[in-house]
Structures are given as C-alpha cells and as structure tokens.
Amino acid sequence: MDTAKTKPFDEMFLQDEVIRPIYAEYAAWLQDVPHQQLESKRQEAELLFRRVGITFNVYGEDAGAERLIPFDVVPRILSASEWARLSDGAIQRVKALNMFLHDVYHDQEIIKAGIVPSSILANAQYRPEMFGVDVPGGVYAHIAGVDLVRTGENDFYVLEDNLRTPSGVSYMLENRKMMMRLFPELFRRYPVAPVEHYPQVLLNNLRAVAQAGVHEPTVVLLTPGAYNSAYFEHAFIAQQMGIELVEGQDLFVRNNAVYMRTTEGPKRVDVIYRRIDDDFIDPLSFRPDSMLGVPGLLSVYRNGGVTLANAVGTGVADDKDTYIYVPEMIRFYLGEEPILSNVPTYQLSKADDLKYVLDNLAELVVKEVQGSGGYGMLVGPAASKQELEDFRQRILANPANYIAQPTLALSTCPTLVETGIAPRHVDLRPFVLSGKTVSLVPGALCRVALREGSLVVNSSQGGGTKDTWILKD
C-alpha cells in the first residue's frame, strides 16, 4: 500500500505530464478557458448556492453560524469500468453489513464462530432493545455511505462505513445541477451518467420496506430541526422525494401506530426516514431529556407498526472497531472474497498494536472509535510535537477508544485554486440504497482538501466538494 511518503496518484496525469485518456477531452477544453473565466464561474456557483440556502451549521461556533461548503468547478471523472468495481464492492459490503446487523440482533452466529469478539455487545452503539426484532425485509441500513480513498490506478480502499444517518447526497445532486448550468458544453462532450433519479430510487426503496399489507405507504423525513448542521439536506431530500418533512412534535403514537398531525386531522405514517440519532429518537426509551424525538416510537417500531430507516442500532456496524471485521463478514455471510479492501488498521486495545502506534505516532492517523466529521483524530505527519504529546496522553488514558491507520497518499484531482489549476487530495462517498434490491446511483459525494498538502477533506475542517462524473460505457 502507498503511504503519504510516496508521490500521490494523480487522476488526471500519467508520468511526464501525459494526460490520462479519460481526462483528454476535458483537458483540451480546459486549455482554451482562461483562469479568470473559471473563477467567475466559481463565484457564480457560490452566489447561487447561497441563494438556494445550501449551507451547514458548524457546531462549537457562534450560534447560528453557517457556511457554504466550497464548490470546485473542476469535476472528478471515473470510467465505467472503475465505477463498476467500486459499485460492486460497495454493494457487497453493505449486503454483508445488513446480514451482520440481523445476526448480531438475533442468533449471533458470527460471534459464536469466533470471527467477531463478544465485546462488540458492549459497544455503546449496540442497542439491546433491538434484540429479536425482525425488521422489514431484513434491511437495517437502507441508506449507507461508503467512504473510499484511492492510492493507485486500481487501488481503492474503504476508509469507513456510514450506516447511521449518512449525509452529503444533496451535494451530489446539487453539484451536478450546478455543473450542467455553468458548463452545458461539457455535457455534450462527455457521456456522463445521470444522478437526478436518486430521490425516486430512495423513495421506491423506502416504500418497499413498509409493513406487509400496506399498499400506499406514507413516508416522511424526520429531522431534528433547523439548527441541525445538515438541515438543508433534510429539507432538500424531502422536497425532491415529494414527502413531508417533519419534526418530533409533528408526530404522535396511538394504538401501536405513528400518526402525523395535518390540517385535515391525523394521518398514519408507515415509513420514517429519520435523520435523528438513536439517543434522541424516543425520550421514553433513550435520553429522557430529548425534545427531538417521538415518545413511544420505539415500542411501535419493535411491534412492527412503523418502519425506521435506518434501523435503530445500526451504529454498531459502522463503529471504527467493527470496521476491522467487515472483510471477514463478507467471507462469513456471502462466501465471497472482498472486492474492496480495508485500510490496514491497528486496534489500540491490543498491547502490540498500542506499542507500535505509540512508537510511530508521527507517521500515523489515529481516530476515535466513535468519532466522525474529522473531529477527535490525529494526522501524525501534520501534527506539532505538542499535539503529538497531547494525543499520546489521550491514547494512554483510554487505548480502546482509538484505532490507527497508515497515512495514505490519497489520490489527487485537478482543482481550481488562486494560482490556477493544481492537484488536491480527494475521497469519495457513494450512497448504497437497500430495499427489495441493493443499488447505487452512478454518482457520489466527492470531497476535496482545498489546502495544499492537506489530507483532511471534511467540510467541518475546511474541505470542499466536486461533481463526480461516472462515464457511460
């Protein structure tokens, strides 16, 4: 595996500045476009995004602080064959994770087989309330975001799985609309696969997991409200699917069913696409101080009176400690070899791994087991001596709370910066949808680290986004 010490893989250029065939048409177009024109298009995109309200709140900043996620006008381009492999690998992975979730809440065969340790049942994201509960279609993770990084021509690795309330798909959709508006001529040059049908595919999948006997299921999207960092996405996806956007106070439980308050009276709800974490979804079952959820919702859910997407308890499968075992899950449940590999990972709860990591802290990326958004992590090569020492003490205080990985040389894509076009590191999050079938729309959230040399692509840490073009055969 490549590490950050090697020259990163450039997705546009081969050696000696030879352009990869997939980028040739774009490079020819780019040669005739002055930097000032591209910058003007970028500013136009920023203005349009601000008008539409595509912002996210940043926790820990001044109340109400909102930011635009910077949008890069240079697309990331993947061939049909590259996408086919990524798509097959992501589908395989999510199928195995759904089977693992069913197993861990039922017979726990993978634990009995000694493949996954029983300590996973002590994970904070494992919900004993879900033990023995049969969810419709056996689908726990209806929407999954699989974070991928590239280090070489055919070297794609899974960095992590997002199975709780994965976000970012609104940027996949809006970035495409923006590119088609700003650069229509490019879409005449390239056979780019469409992504705009994602909301309909998602809606069809959600309807497919309604309770047996419901022929015209009512689907709603449950949001924590306007102060949530991803509220724009909640409103956008609900609008695109043509369903109601609701908050906890809009729903109530009666006679083993969930109802929505409407101007015409109560209306029964069959499927809830929830964007609220487990802890806050039902104050009678989890956090009693939660004002975001619906009292009694878990009881109705356990009794089969409503479907929740994603299921309660999915977090145990996207924990960074669990991530280590996903390749073995694929072999155990599917009898297949993993199409996509994990990044080699050290478990700091193991004495040998802990010693190695502490001895090589300056060369590794260390993450909290349940951290997200780029918080609670250390990028060793970019850290100061004091930061390394502070993090060392945090690790020693609770080694089991951390995993570590090599500092990968993430691939770079051409990106518009102040001085022109320059390479910047990127990752990729395709969204896997599970219902009667498991599928992907040919597109993804591509995040880009806009600071030169930075490997942190998270929007909360200054990253931006790009449109991802999957080419048709």
TrEMBL record:
Q: Which domain of life is it from?
A: Bacteria
Sorted alphabetically, which SUPFAM superfamilies does this protein's record hold? Glutathione synthetase ATP-binding domain-like
Signal peptide stretch: none
Domain Circularly permuted ATP-grasp type per the UniProt entry, residue ranges? 75-449
| UniProt-listed Pfam families | CP_ATPgrasp_2
Q: Mind telling me which PANTHER family this protein's record contains?
A: BLR5612 PROTEIN, SLL1039 PROTEIN
Q: What is the name attached to this protein's record?
A: Circularly permuted ATP-grasp type 2 domain-containing protein
